[in-house]
Amino acid sequence: MSSELVNIKKIKNAYNRISKYVHKTPVFTSSAADKMTGRKCFFKAENLQKTGSFKVRGALNAILALKEKNPNVSGVVTHSSGNHGQAVAWATSVAGFPCSVVVPEYAPEVKKTAIRGYGAELAECGSLPTDRNVVCDKISTEKGYVIIPPYDHEDVIAGQGTVALELLDQVPDLDAILVSVSGGGLSSGIAIAAKAIKPNIKIFLVEPEGKHMEKCLREGKRLWSDPPKYLDTIADGIRLEQPGQLTFPILTQLVEKEVFSLNNDEMIEGMKFAFQRMKLVIEAAAGAAVAAILSDKMKKMDPSLKHVAVILCGGNIDIDHLPWY
Amino acid sequence: MSSELVNIKKIKNAYNRISKYVHKTPVFTSSAADKMTGRKCFFKAENLQKTGSFKVRGALNAILALKEKNPNVSGVVTHSSGNHGQAVAWATSVAGFPCSVVVPEYAPEVKKTAIRGYGAELAECGSLPTDRNVVCDKISTEKGYVIIPPYDHEDVIAGQGTVALELLDQVPDLDAILVSVSGGGLSSGIAIAAKAIKPNIKIFLVEPEGKHMEKCLREGKRLWSDPPKYLDTIADGIRLEQPGQLTFPILTQLVEKEVFSLNNDEMIEGMKFAFQRMKLVIEAAAGAAVAAILSDKMKKMDPSLKHVAVILCGGNIDIDHLPWY
């Protein structure tokens, strides 16, 4: 079922739409990581992507697909002060659409400035998760703007899946991919693309402690209680407790049941490894994935997983407030 | 004269020797930098090079050339607790030579560990610049080890020149290159290679305030007073006041007389730009070059310099003690 909503053909179409605007990000290796893990490690550097995260792939695909279907759409709106907000703002500047981004009034000024820098209009809202939806819906209704959700949207998932298309072109003999999960847009897109290209590849999720994905995947059920909560983690890119209604069934079907759960200290160690050894600035959500591949849990995994990739999903952190200071 | 000591042929030979061991480092662009400068900016990421700096190019070329001439050499020795020390230690592990690195006893443990990690033997010395030479000479005499100097050596200069070979292959239509100068190995190698390939290209030096390269270049004279001093700068990679006896004449002949002089605050701004906007960890010596291209001085330069490259010479900093904290 899920594979009909988004499939490899849609992901390839997405790549045709977006590839001339987004970076084909490099894949780095690290002899230090290879030595520590006893495997060959590959790091897909989406932190070097436009706007500093993979999010532009899904946002741009959704917006260009929208433009194909309806060239006269009056604009788009989304709510996010984080990577998705910047990505939508950037993508609309590419597509030539007006754009509103709803952000909580307490959002850091630097993030508001970045969103405005791409030409988007800011709409402030209160601090409750539900406030955002109210303001977003209001703008959509009043201005006729189309809402671009952060993950639960087939064109967004297809866009994020292009990370795996590229990665498997760059490193065809991969045995596994480790990817951080929040709403599940990136991980489900990657799972669909990678499994279609290479059915035996294994996709492992990486999460902040407290998300309990492993239990939900094993039981094939959403065991979270509503209303949706934020996790208590330094990784603001992956602090959603619950994946989406579209993405969770895809994950249940395609990814490994075994999940890497990381705490703040471990994420910081992952970030520091990337900074110090690889000279790459990554955010905590990506630090989690690095920590996962360097973890004891990984050491105990099937030794036939020889070539393992980690998605460095983003690099948007405030360098004046690094979490280890 | 200088162009006979090292020429483009020697630099191409160096590239043939080292290219299968070192990274062909990527060249990054930044739309933020382009907007700020009104030019197209290119960033050659030698911070992503093996051991975290360009220094491996010169060290490996010198050591492999030595091995060609004398396969039975008993080992090599150098003195440096910094990037050159790590580079020589790494290069000897590639070449299969024993290696001693002389470091001052006060050098940070992390640097000593890195050097030992490449299999080199550490020899500690006192804190005066002259102490290092004494210990280095002693080891050379006692063990028959060949001294690999950090910059004043034709094979080292030729190795560093391969940065420009690669860069002009990656970005053929460059108009200028900005490069930080300390002993002058990198800058003289780049000047020889770039000017041979593209005689009209302009090479600009970047220095910490107080080095007074511009005056010396304009007068064509070494105006520094002996003994050699260290500059008071956060950029430990470029704190030598005086360039070398071999490199200075090359620079006098080939680089622009106009020099970019940066203070600590400006270097920090350059570092922060790379961290925040480009997601790259760079050391202060590279931050100086980034600050130079973003400077008011650059803004006033000839507008026909449309495509300008900056060498990100290294990324070896202690991330627990970043200079803006």
Notes on the structure:
The first copy, chain A, has a 6-stranded mixed sheet, sandwiched between helices. Chain A has a 4-stranded parallel sheet with strand order 5-4-3-6, with helices on both faces. In chain A, strand 3 (76-79), helix 5 (83-95) and strand 4 (99-104) form a beta-alpha-beta unit. Chain A contains 14 helices and 10 strands. The mean pLDDT of chain A is 94. Chain A is an alpha/beta fold and 325 residues long.
Notable traits:
globular; six-stranded mixed sheet; alpha/beta; Rossmann fold; homodimer
Brief summary of the model shown:
2 copies of one chain form a homodimer. Chain A has 325 residues and is an alpha/beta fold. The first copy, chain A, has helices at residues 2-5, 8-18, 31-37, 55-69, 83-95, 109-117, 129-143, 154-170, 185-197, 213-219, 247-254, 264-278, 284-293, 296-299; strands at residues 27-28, 40-45, 76-79, 99-104, 121-125, 146-147, 176-180, 202-208, 260-262, 307-312.
Can you lay out the helices and strands and say which pair or pack?
The structure is a homodimer of 325-residue chains.
Chain A: H1 2-5, H2 8-18, E1 27-28, H3 31-37, E2 40-45, H4 55-69, E3 76-79, H5 83-95, E4 99-104, H6 109-117, E5 121-125, H7 129-143, E6 146-147, H8 154-170, E7 176-180, H9 185-197, E8 202-208, H10 213-219, H11 247-254, E9 260-262, H12 264-278, H13 284-293, H14 296-299, E10 307-312
Parallel strand pairs in A: 2-10, 3-4, 3-6, 4-5, 7-8, 7-10, 8-9
Antiparallel strand pairs in A: 1-2
